[in-house]
Amino acid sequence: xxxxxDMANFTxxxxxxxxxxxxLAASILIVGIGKIMGMSGILKSSLVSLPRFSWxxxxxxxxxxxxxxxxxxxxxxxxxxxxxxxxxIVAGLLVGFGTRLGSGCTSxxxxxxxxxxxxRSITATVLFLFxxxxxxxxxxxx
Length: 142
Fold this sequence. Notes:
Blueprint: H1 12-33, H2 39-48, H3 55-73, H4 85-101, H5 106-115, H6 119-141
Transmembrane segments: 12-33, 53-73, 85-102, 122-141
Keywords: Cell inner membrane, Cell membrane, Membrane, Transmembrane, Transmembrane helix, Transport
GO cellular component, one term: plasma membrane
């Protein structure tokens, strides 16, 4: 098994635009209301606040709507997971466990924490990457 990038269809512009949009959203959220754009915390808060209406719930609904609109306008590329379903489920559970253990997710620490020069977030992001590399290596052996 190997990973590769289809260079004939690789478009760095969509990645650049997406990164700029994520950065703008994170900046607006922290400057506007002083909140960090960590998806695990936002998702948890949106579920905990139900049935009350909150900014976290609006954020999650906005992500769902924009994903749906993107699929209508642009469409999604065909994806091939290349792994059995059980590996994907185990990987998802490990990510959830790591999110709780690390007091936040990759978006909270990696995008927002590092931009604030948080030592905890820098350490967490390095550990996320290291754990991902080790996990991917081990799963490739199974």
